[in-house]
Structure formats: C-alpha cells, structure tokens
Amino acid sequence: MAEPIIAFDGVHKVFEGSNRVHAVDDVSLTIDAGEIFGVIGFSGAGKSTLVRLVNGLEPVTSGRLVVDGHEVSALSEKQLRAVRPDIGMIFQQFNLFGSKTIAENVAYPLRLAKWDAGRRAARVAELLAFVGLTDKADAHPSQLSGGQKQRVGIARALATSPKILLADECTSALDPQTTREVLDVLRRVNAELGVTIVLITHEMDVVRYLCDRVLIMENGRAVELGDVYQVFARPRAQVTQRFVAATMRDKPSADALGRLAATHPGRLVTVPIVDDAHTDAERSSVFARHGLEARVIYGGIIEISERPYGSLTYAVTGADTAVDAALADLAGSGGYTEHDRATLPNSEGHR
Ligand code: ADP
Questions:
Q1: Are 232 and 310 contained in the same domain?
Q2: ABC transporter domain: which residues (predicted)?
Q3: Domain check: are 199 and 315 in the same one?
Q4: What residues are in contact with ligand 1 under a 6 Å CB criterion?
Q5: CA-CA to 124 of 20 to 30 Å: which in 105, 171, 223, 273?
Q6: Which protein residue's CA is at the shortest distance from atom 26 of ligand 1?
Q7: Ligand 1 centre distance from Cα of residue 63 (Å)
C-alpha cells in the first residue's frame, strides 16, 4: 500500500479583510506518495489556495496538514524553509527570470541552497538533459516557446530533487499540442523520478490524460474525489457533471435532439458505453436481437485512464413492445435514457 505523503485533516483557510473569504473550507483528504493527483474546479473555487497551503506559501487557518512527515500547519516560517526544498512548484506564467540564461534560471534554487559551482553545473546539465533543453542552456527565456519555458520551469522545480511537485495551471497558457508535450514531461517526472504530483487545472482533458485521482473543488469545499475514470463515468456532484459535459459533448442538447427528431423517425435513446467487454458486446447488439433498426444519430467516445467512455444516441424503429423489451435489457446492464419527443423543441415529427 502506498503511504500518504500529504494529509489534510479538517483544514480551513480564511482570508480576513474587508471581504472575508473562506477559500478552503473543511478539507480532509490524503494524497499518496507516487500518485498524480488532479485538483479541478472553476476559477475562485480555492484550488490555488489549497495547494499553496502544502508548501506553506499560505499558512493554514485551522486544522492539521501533514506533508512528508512534517506538520506544516504547526511550523514557523523558518522551519518551513527547511521543508520547502522537498516541494517544487511550477506556474502558469512560468515565472522565469528574463535577464538570466536558461542554465542560470535552473541553477537558481541550487544557489539558494548554497551548492558550489561545480556541483551546480553538473546538476543543471543533468536537469536540462532530462527536459530535452541541453542546447538552450545559454539562451534567454524570451528566445523560447511557451512549452520550452514550462520545461525550464519543471527543470528548476526539480533542481533540489523534491519529493512533491505542485503544478498550478501549468498548461493553461499553452496550445493543446504543447500542453501534451509538457504533460508527457510530467508523466516522466512521476514515473522515472518517483515524484508525487499535485496538479491544478480547470481542464478535464488534462486530468484524464495525466491523473490517477481527481478532486473537484467548489466554494472552498472538496465536493468529489475519486479515480479519474470513476469520477468521469459516474459524476455525482452537479459541478462535476458540468465539467464532464463540457469535455465530452457526447450527449445532444435539447435543441440538437429537437432537430434530430425532426429528421429521424423512431424512439430516441441514449446508451452509455460500459467499460466491460462482455456487457458492452451484449449492449451493442441489443436492438438487433429484438429485431429493431437502430440508427446512431449522436455520440462520442473518448479514452479515460486507458478505458473507453462516452455514449451513443440512437433513433430506434420497430414495434413498441420490442423496443420496450430491448430497453428492459439495457436497464439491467448499465442503463439508458429515453428522450420524450413530446418535450423536445420543434417536436411535431415522426414517431
Ligand atoms: P482558484 O485557484 O480555484 O481559482 P483561489 O484559491 O485562487 O481559487 O481563490 C479562492 C478564493 O480565495 C477566491 O475568492 C479568491 O479571491 C480568494 N483569495 C485567494 N487568495 C487571496 C488572498 N491572498 N487574499 C484574499 N483573498 C484571496
């Protein structure tokens, strides 16, 4: 069993001031050593604050937070300085020094940690090789692309061999292709160096590509936490359902259904993809088995944690009793949703 490397126990963070903000509200959870843990939520949900508590950039207001055996919620600023080299951080805006070379940027935390010049140079060379930027050592940040800058950020964050890497919206300024490159580097950081990664994002696509588990935050609270596949496939909280729907777009809107209903006769049924080879084969042949004709009119399937996920919407024609029998089969093996034509926009259409 993996050991927790981060443990929140009833943690609160309140920003006092003219506008009192309860940014983190009674969060209790653990993050295991070696996992890639995603934190997702809309802007203002408290994601950054939660993560900044981990390295003590923000002090905990109440509750207990233990990071790698240190109770950071009880440490002084001086004691925190001793813990921080074990926790790297990367940012959306890269936060590189524009006047320093790439090598100098990466060497910066080693200078702070008082490494001598020889060891520093060797370590910088090793880090630049790891992120594939050896040939950029003497360049300045302005000469690099966004993806390259973030790889420099990763190299710098790893300089002191941290056990934990905090990534705050680290791909939000990047295009999808570059995002993928940076996520691949993070995957290697985790797999080859064994670094635990806590990654904040507002993009479910980033979570499904990289993370083992995901936490959904809303109004400072941890509203849902689970394996990425489980959370995607059976989102419970409304906010999670909105994130999943925004990523997937596999289910037709009422307007789209109304348009489809106007041109496709039959009963309209959405069938989720079930990640079980046996059940799935049975489900995909269910309409044919009952002598029905089923036409796919909408849908989407993607891969999450290397498993298929999504849904297909069919227009099913044939005897009503046969459709009912097919739907009863589906109900027993993973469910379905039937859309009532009478409730759809512009629904005169066929039946
Ligand atoms: P997210 O990362 O999910 O966008 P944040 O953690 O940045 O959310 O912010 C959560 C809430 O805390 C917001 O209402 C934000 O305005 C507030 N907040 C964040 N940092 C501070 C601060 N230093 N002082 C006062 N309020 C803050």
A1: no
A2: 6-244
A3: no
A4: 15, 21, 23, 41, 43-49
A5: 171
A6: 15
A7: 18
Q: How far is the CA of 46 from the centre of ligand 1 (A)?
A: 6
Helix, strand and coil content of the chain, in percent to the nearest 5, comes to 40, 30, 30
In 264-348, where does DSSP find H-type helix? 277-284, 286-289, 320-331
* pLDDT, tens digit (0-9, with 9 covering 90-100), for 151-202: 999 999 999 999 999 999 999 989 989 999 999 999 999 999 999 999 999 9
CA-to-CA distance for 335 and 160, rounded, in angstroms? 51
Task: Let me know whether 233 and 264 are in one domain.
Answer: no
Q: Are residues 73 and 182 in the same domain?
A: yes
Chain position carrying tokens 């302005």? 142
Q: How confident is the model over 171-185, as pLDDT tens digits?
A: 998 998 999 999 999
Domain stop point among 246, 263, 294: 246
This model's pTM is above 0.70: yes
CA diameter of the chain? 82
Structure tokens that stand for 213 in this block: 């588990």
Question: Domain span at residue 87?
Answer: 6-246
Q: For residues 188 and 182, what is the distance between their CA atoms, to the nearest angstrom?
A: 10
Domain co-membership, 122 together with 32: yes
**By alpha-carbon position, which residue is closest to atom 21 of ligand 1?**
15
Question: Do 184 and 77 belong to one domain?
Answer: yes
Tokens of 28: 């209790």
- The domain tally of the chain equals 2
CA dist 199 and 27 (Å) reads: 17
List, in sequence order, every residue forming a beta bridge with 165; answer none if it has no partner.
Answer: 88, 197
| Residue 87 exposure: Cα atoms within 13 Å on the Cβ side | 24
